[in-house]
Design goal:
With 78 residues, the protein is mainly α. It has four helices and no strands. It has one domain.
């Protein structure tokens, strides 16, 4: 049972990372967030996804978006 919970959490983090990369890449290519959000995987969605476009540096990205996600503790270590 524990093994399957760990697998689900790892898969969710993977989808969250994919969604963040999609949003950052799309924003860099001047795509609208409203155009990108439907392309994100539902298992990797989180509340702060739509605020990703307000960050103009990695530090702002962390403070505005990632700090409140489960990925925040891992990104902070980088």
């Amino acid at each position: 049972m524990f093994y399957s919970v760990v697998e689900v959490m790892c898969a969710r983090y993977s989808y969250m990372i994919d969604n963040i990369v999609l949003l950052i890449t799309g924003t860099l290519h001047q795509r609208a967030i409203s155009e990108l959000i439907p392309k994100c995987h539902p298992l990797g969605s989180f509340e702060q996804m739509e605020a990703i476009h307000i960050a103009s540096s990695p530090a702002e990205l962390y403070n505005a978006v990632l700090v409140d996600t489960p990925l925040g503790e891992y990104v902070h270590l980088l």
